[in-house]
Amino acid sequence: MGSSTTVKISPRGKLPFSVITTGFCTLAFIGLLYTERISFLSSSNNIFRFSPCSASSKKIKTDESILVSKALDFPADDRFDFDPEECDIIHGKWVFNRSIKPLYSDRTCPYLDRQVSCVKNGRNDSDYRHWEWQPDDCILPRFNPEIALRKLQGKRLMFVGDSLQRGQWQSFVCLVESVIPKQQKSMKRGRVHSVFKAKEYNTTIEFYWAPFLIESNSDMPIIGDPKQRILRVDSIEKHAKNWLEVDILVFNTYVWWMSGLKIKSLWGSFANGEEGFEELDTPVSYRLGLKTWANWVDSTIDPNRTRVFFTTMSPTHQRSADWGNKNGTKCYNETKPIMKKWHWGSGSDKRMMNAVSSVVKKMKVPVTFINITQLSEYRIDAHSSIYTELQGKLLNDKQKADPLHYADCIHWCLPGVPDTWNRIFYAHL
Questions:
Q1: Helix (H) or strand (E) run with residue 176 in it
Q2: Which of 245, 238, 254, 146 is nearest to 201 (CA)?
Q3: Does the annotation mark 411 as catalytic?
Q4: Which conformational region is residue 41 in: left (phi greater than 0), alpha (psi within -120 to 50 degrees), or beta?
């Protein structure tokens, strides 16, 4: 996916460059000429790119959006304040910073599923919680719960998608809930729709389960065998009617498509039977489903009322040979991020990313990408691994001793990497 760049959304205010703008622009231009990335960021149909550099030098903006611990020393740091039209979030590195403490833990936040509560589940190492994403070209604002809640005052925020999107939702709730008095907050969990209320702010932070966004026979109850799943690629209304009157929608869909099989895809009503499906290549079915989603957004959403976000695909780390550990077992026992610049593993599919790019590029309603793919690619150390549950039960000792079959290298520990996703999201609010 491309950088966390706002597609068609006008910037809320031009944020300034440093006094060395001319030098930066020259370097950026040279870099763009000679760099070809493993994603559709720099492909010929790229919709995520740097905006032209401003010819004028400006002073650093000093308002609540600059949440850095100390003033910038420009002789040593020529990064500029975050601007979604100027900063390419994927260009950066993970920097270890033990002084940065997570805003919550799986012991202090009561809203985390056991699936992602790695410390509660026995994980003893803690370094994975102290890596900070540092973009090369800009300063990413730190997450401030009070400011986030003020920005959401009187609004409904809804995360829509799969279990990875549920993790992002839980991360966001945990990032803000500690500053809300107990009597001023509540949580109602449902199998499909869950709602956290911040009463003082008249705000709801919601999650809606729709792993394919479009309708399938496996939405609820879930069908465990991917071979038995059938997707109705032209139907979304069953889910989408629950997305109306929402002020901020954050979508994702990826990992449920990646079964390694062809996708059984159906046009028309399930009421007419399920035998008329066609088996399509995954990227083809994915594109059809995304077009159905895009058509609903364009025909239904009022961009003056509702902002639309799309979280890019969360990489899986199922093959340790991808990062040179030929004797490893998936992400099991990994304790540090990959440091090789632009690492790209087999758990991220460029065809799927290109499908999202081409569909969104043609939409009328503005969509903002929360671009998490490249930065998450490095984080082989931060998955739930064996510190998780299976079918509602924590892994037992025998299962933990068999990481090849039981290590979860799809979902992420919380606190952890999804907090960075929400830090990027927060920067766009």
A1: helix 163-177
A2: 146
A3: yes
A4: alpha
Give the Cα separation of 318 and 236 in Å (integer): 31
Q: From residue 256, give the alpha-carbon distance in Å to each of 2, 23, 206, 231, 330.
A: 21, 44, 21, 11, 19
Percentage of residues in the chain with pLDDT exceeding 90? 74
| Total-model pTM | 0.82
Of 239, 383, 411, 428, the active-site residue reads: 411
Phi, then psi, of 231 in degrees rounded to 5: -105, 130
State the Cα–Cα distance between residues 353 and 313, nearest whole angstrom: 8
* Residue 155 and residue 196 in contact, taking contact as beta carbons nearer than 8 Å: no
Instruction: Burial-class residue 300 by CB neighbours within 10 Å (0-12, 13-18, 19+).
Output: middle
Range with top average pLDDT, 62-76, 179-193, 259-273 = 179-193
- Of 163, 234, 343, 358, which residue is the catalytic one? 163
Q: Is the confidence at residue 205, as pLDDT, over 90? A: yes
Tell me which residue has tokens 């490095």.
378
For the question of residue 408 being annotated catalytic, the response is yes
> DSSP character for 369?
E
Average pLDDT, the chain: 84
Interhelix angle 282-300/350-361, nearest 10 degrees = 30
- pLDDT confidence bin for 38, thresholds 50/70/90: very low
CA distance to 259, 295, 349, per residue, from 281 (Å): 11, 22, 13
pLDDT digits (tens, 9 = 90+) for 311-338: 999 999 999 999 999 999 999 999 999 9
